[in-house]
Write the structure tokens for this entry.
Amino acid sequence: MAYTQEDLTTLHAMKMSLLQGKRVVRSEVAGKTLEFQAVKIADLDAAIAAAETELGTACLRTYAKNAGAAS
């Protein structure tokens, strides 16, 4: 799947909508219509990770449970 920066922005906006309480989000990304439900947010996270990797914009994330260790 060939992602653009606009696709990544769309994916992040979709995730934000789910986190703000929207039950279902749908948008066109990389020429495909994608739909995610709040209960499937892990699938959306995977799509974001794939787009970030392809675009070379993946960043290290830290989590409190790991005492600040990067994952």
